[in-house]
């Protein structure tokens, strides 16, 4: 095993097994193979992009086995803050406002109100639990498919569910 097809590890750990008594050789991107007995291999730091892990074994009798290849992508760059595409900004009479947002394809999202513990909110939509009147904030962040966490987007809004006081009827006397 080893990293999935996408990783945020510059030096990912590869774990493997084979025939008892076999000798293993490992390489990255076609470089000269090195001995990697012990069932694991960690390459020197790799740059972002697509890489290939090469693994081969020679059994105790000296018979070489086929080379196995595993392609993977190193992604070390965090995503940008998500875009809040709808929801209140300013005053709203909705005690439980809804927000829509978008971000990087394949990302997972976390949402919070007023800095509370974030909750998963995949799907581009979030509706707050009923809030008290006053100033509040909506926060959303994303983590890309490689596991890089990005900054949060924040939108402040004010919940105002209090009806206005009744208008007073006034009588005007016009004097001549």
List the helices and strands and how they pair.
Layout: E1 6-7, E2 14-15, E3 23-28, E4 34-35, E5 40-41, E6 49-58, E7 68-74, E8 83-86, E9 90-92, E10 98-102, E11 108-113, E12 119-120, E13 125-127, E14 134-143, E15 153-159
Parallel strand pairs: 1-7, 9-15
Antiparallel strand pairs: 2-5, 3-4, 3-6, 6-7, 8-10, 10-13, 11-12, 11-14, 14-15
Could you characterize the architecture of this molecule?
The chain is an all-beta fold and 176 residues long. It has strands at 6-7, 14-15, 23-28, 34-35, 40-41, 49-58, 68-74, 83-86, 90-92, 98-102, 108-113, 119-120, 125-127, 134-143, 153-159. The protein has a 5-stranded mixed beta sheet with strand order 1-7-6-3-4, with no helix packed on it. A 5-stranded mixed beta sheet has the order 9-15-14-11-12, with no helix packed on it. A hairpin with a 5-residue loop joins strand 11 (108-113) and strand 12 (119-120). The N and C termini lie far apart (98 Å). The model has no long low-confidence stretch (mean pLDDT 92).
């Amino acid at each position: 095993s080893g990293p999935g097809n996408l990783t945020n590890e510059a030096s990912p750990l590869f774990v493997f097994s084979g025939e008892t008594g076999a000798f293993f050789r490992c390489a990255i991107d076609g470089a000269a193979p090195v001995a990697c007995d012990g069932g694991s291999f960690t390459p020197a730091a790799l740059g972002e992009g697509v890489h290939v892990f090469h693994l081969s074994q020679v059994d105790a009798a000296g018979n070489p086995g086929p080379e196995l290849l595993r392609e993977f992508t190193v992604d070390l760059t965090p995503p940008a803050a998500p875009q809040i595409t709808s929801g209140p900004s300013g005053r709203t009479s909705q005690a439980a406002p809804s927000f829509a947002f978008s971000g990087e394809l394949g990302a997972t999202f976390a949402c919070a109100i007023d800095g509370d513990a974030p909750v998963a909110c995949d799907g581009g939509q979030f509706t707050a639990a009923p809030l008290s009147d006053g100033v509040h904030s909506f926060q959303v962040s994303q983590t890309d498919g490689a596991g890089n966490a990005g900054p949060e987007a924040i939108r402040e809004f004010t919940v105002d569910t209090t009806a206005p006081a009744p208008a007073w009827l006034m009588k005007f006397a016009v004097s001549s």
